[in-house]
Amino acid sequence: MSRNAKRLPQPDRLEQASGSQRISAYVKRGLMRYQEAADYLGIAKGTLANWVSLRIGPRSIKIGSMRLFRQEDLDLFIEEKLFETERFEKRRRRQRGRGALVLTCQHPDLFLFSVMALALAVCLFTSVVSFQ
Questions:
Q1: CA distances from 120 to 13, 115, 116 (A)
Q2: Cα(70)–Cα(62) distance, rounded to whole angstroms?
Q3: From CA 55, how far away is CA 82, in angstroms rounded?
Q4: Nearest CA among 76, 79, 74, 80 for reference residue 33
Q5: 26/33 Cα distance (integer angstroms)
Q6: Which end of the chain has a smaller Cβ tally under 10 Å, C or N?
Q7: Per-residue confidence at 13, pLDDT binned at 50, 70, 90?
C-alpha cells in the first residue's frame, strides 16, 4: 500500500455480527445467495448473474441489494432444462431422417407389385429402344 493511500474505516464488529446473523436467517429459510446458487447448479457465478439479467435463469427474490434463490426454484429450473433438452434431442433425431423419400400405401403388397411392374416396363422399353 502506498504512503498516500488512506485506509478505509473498518466496520464495527457489531455491524459484522448483525450482517452475518441476517444472512444466516436467510440460509435457515432455504435461501441462497449468488455463489451458493451457482455452486448448486454447477455453473459460474457470472453465468448465473447473466442469466438472471436476461431473465432466462431461475426465479429469484431481491431483498434490498441482495438477490436470493430458493432451493425449490433451482430444482424446478433444473427440471425445466432437462425437459427442454429431451425435447430438443427428440426434434433433432426426427430431423435427421427428413432427407429420405418415404412412400406409404394402404396395401404394401399391391404397391410392391406396381413398382416391380413399372421396373419391368422400363427394362422392356429400354431394350426395345436399343434394338431399333
A1: 97, 9, 6
A2: 11
A3: 18
A4: 74
A5: 9
A6: C
A7: very low
- For residues 23-37, give the mean pLDDT: 81
Question: What pTM was estimated for this model as a whole?
Answer: 0.52
Cβ-based neighbours of 1, under 8 Å, separated by 6 or more:
7
CA 73, distance to chain mean position in Å, is: 15
Q: How far apart are CA 27 and CA 22, in angstroms?
A: 9
The CA distance from 77 to 57, in Å, is 8
Task: Show the CA angle centred on residue 74, arms to residues 38 and 30, nearest 5°.
Answer: 90
88 C-beta neighbours (distance < 10 Å), count: 10
- If you average pLDDT over residues 33-54, what whole number do you get? 95
Q: Which three cell numbers stand for residue 1?
A: 500500500
pLDDT value at position 69? 95
Using CA atoms, how far apart are residues 118 and 123, in angstroms rounded to an integer? 9
67 - beta bridge partners? 62
**pLDDT tens string 62-116:** 988 889 999 999 999 999 999 888 888 887 777 665 555 556 667 777 778 888 8
